[in-house]
Predict the structure of Glucosamine-6-phosphate deaminase.
Amino acid sequence: VVILPTAEDCGRVVADVIAAAVTAGPDGNRPTLGLATGSSPVLAYRELIRRHREEGLSFAGVRGFLLDEYVGLPAGHPESYRSVIRRELTATLDIADSDVHGPDGAHPDPLVAAREYELRLLENGPVAVQVLGIGANGHIGFNEPGSSLTSVTRVKTLTEQTRRDNARFFERPEDVPRHVITQGLGTIGRAQHLLLTASGARKAAAVAAAVEGPLTASCPASVLQWHPHATVVIDEAAAARL
Ligand code: GLP
């Protein structure tokens, strides 16, 4: 657990970990990154874009896999996570668009789309670094409290709290989709390194439950405790209840 004074400091440290993974292997063997949307990783993404532009950090050949996606938003909808990650990260880096993967939320059968995504992840091989935010209720990806600790990619129903939390991204609160496709806790756990970041007092209770509470489906982020390589990078406000 790394506690730093500000969210900007967290962004730099998260970017350091991702940059190290990207530069580690020879070019023929570029890593797969697990990408999260939401506001938590945005400062880290901005820092990676800065390093790409100013320091020549290259992402050529890197593949990205999203954690989750809304069900029912048409392809290209500005708030689909596929569009968000493009806008906030990958379109500005030298990552080919065809190397960025996410669940197909516009598929006529979301159950099929979920299974297909799990298979694509399995075929791709392990994610080197999985970036994670945390919901105020302890969710990771869209694994709401009660999610099986060994779950795989599947369709989930959002809690009202999560829909309210995400309403700021939509014109009207009722526009927030009710269903999502999310990597499961078991899927996420296959990544070689879990890198969770959070900032602000609103996340303090969830962070404390995830890091110091029991391993329980009631706090999905507590699965980090049984992962062999998990790093939590938080600012002082988010660490206040530790
Ligand atoms: C969202 C996403 C998660 C994200 C979390 C926190 O609903 N599905 O991947 O980590 O909630 O969001 P934020 O970082 O905006 O606080």
